[in-house]
Amino acid sequence: MAAEVHALDLVLVVLLVWLGWRALASADLFKAVVQFIVFGLLLSLAWVRLGAPDVALAEAAIGAGLAGALLLDTLARLGRDGAADETRPLGLTPARAGIALACLGLAGLLVASVLLLPESWRGLTGPALQQLGNSGVSNPVTATLLNYRGWDTLLEVGVLLLAVLGLWILDVEPPLPPPAPDPMLGLLLRILLPLAVVVAGYLLWVGAHAPGGAFQGAALLAAGGVLWHLARPLSLPATAPVRAAVVLGFAVFLGVGVAMAAFGGGFLSFPPAWAGALILLIETAAMLSIAVIMLGLFVGGRTGKAGE
Amino acid sequence: MSLALLYGLAGIVLVAMGLYAALVARHVLRRLLGLNVLGAGVFMMLVALASRAVDSAGRPDPVPHAMVLTGIVVAVSATALALALLRRMHRHDGSAQLPEDRAP
């Protein structure tokens, strides 16, 4: 772990701040979104530098990939006049000076509080690593997500479920004109889609002892699905199988938690002997669900069949 | 200057920028970009400060990492829902700005 600052870090930080600002202040929203995607990719480099490869994997697939695809899709649907904005969208006017001052004040308070923190600090590293032997996995981040803080992750899967339900409630969107058939995209799909499925399975399995896990695997599966949708438009109406796939992760997670509460331990506290198998079960169900949910968030209730 | 401080300060800059854009921008998509940059700044502060708590093998604190992982997934799902609401508003009203921001 490199604790000292390299020239790379300085370049990365300057680029991140500059790209972050351009992503907000570019008058052309298309440029802004593209800069936001590049910002997300560089952000995953920053996570690697800070010793968080699990976060870097998720950021590259979800933060930069999926969020970028969603933003570009919305921009295309808004059309030329809908995507038009002021020439100086964030320009300082007298009315905005107060807001700018308040943001600067908040930044000042945050800087003061960060400077007041001690240079080195024990945090929760010790307890988290000591209990690793009882958690069923040897990757501390997976142990935190699925075992120590299972509640957070259960509710997170719940939030995802609510998001896709919210999307399905909205009225049906008119379909975009079908894309011109692109032989390259079809070829790419034939190579990348099986690869995405294999790598997602690998990430799910390896997440027990190395960077990876259900969320990263699900993001890859969803990215494969998005590519599929771009090459040959999919429809994902809220039929019974799709609904079952969307609910599966939350239901299995909750079911395991309740079973643990019924047979001893307490809600979501796994006995060490079973923890590894239970975590793998939950992660498999969660990965499938999250992949379908994320694909559903992109493909949306736009098919005309959903919600009728 | 330590790595934690450098990235922590960069995170604060992103928080301030994102908050300003989310409050000031007229176009809803730009407001959403602002919220996402604000979130990225918060995540960066969390991960940067976690890198201070390193054990003897050099592993940083995993708890903030798990929180940020959760945060990234929640942020993208909330963004997806907000974008769907934006598309619906634009379809019904023909404007991508909130009603109180529109020119009369």
Automatic annotation (TrEMBL), chain A:
It is found in: Cell membrane. The chain crosses the membrane at residues 6-25, 32-50, 97-117, 154-172, 184-207, 213-231, 243-268, 274-299. Its main location: membrane. Keywords: Cell membrane, Membrane, Transmembrane, Transmembrane helix. The keyword Transmembrane applies. It is a multi-pass membrane protein. InterPro entries: CPA3_antiporter_subunitB, MnhB, MrpA_C/MbhD. Residues 186-293 form the Na+/H+ antiporter MnhB subunit-related protein domain. Residues 14-80 form the MrpA C-terminal/MbhD domain. PANTHER family: NA(+)/H(+) ANTIPORTER SUBUNIT B (PTHR33932), NA(+)_H(+) ANTIPORTER SUBUNIT B (PTHR33932:SF4). Belongs to the CPA3 antiporters (TC 2.A.63) subunit B family. This is Hydrogenase subunit MbhD domain-containing protein. It comes from Sinimarinibacterium thermocellulolyticum.
UniProtKB/TrEMBL annotation, chain B:
It is found in: Cell membrane. GO terms for molecular function: NADH dehydrogenase (quinone) (non-electrogenic) activity. Keywords: Cell membrane, Membrane, Oxidoreductase, Transmembrane, Transmembrane helix. It comes from the Bacteria. It is a multi-pass membrane protein. It holds the Pfam family Oxidored_q2. Signal peptide: none annotated. InterPro entries: CPA3_antiporter_subunitC, NUOK/Mnh_C1-like. Its EC number is 1.6.5.9. It is an enzyme of class 1 (oxidoreductase). The chain crosses the membrane at residues 6-25, 32-54, 66-86. Belongs to the CPA3 antiporters (TC 2.A.63) subunit C family. This is NADH-quinone oxidoreductase subunit K. The lineage of its organism: Bacteria, Pseudomonadati, Pseudomonadota, Gammaproteobacteria, Nevskiales.
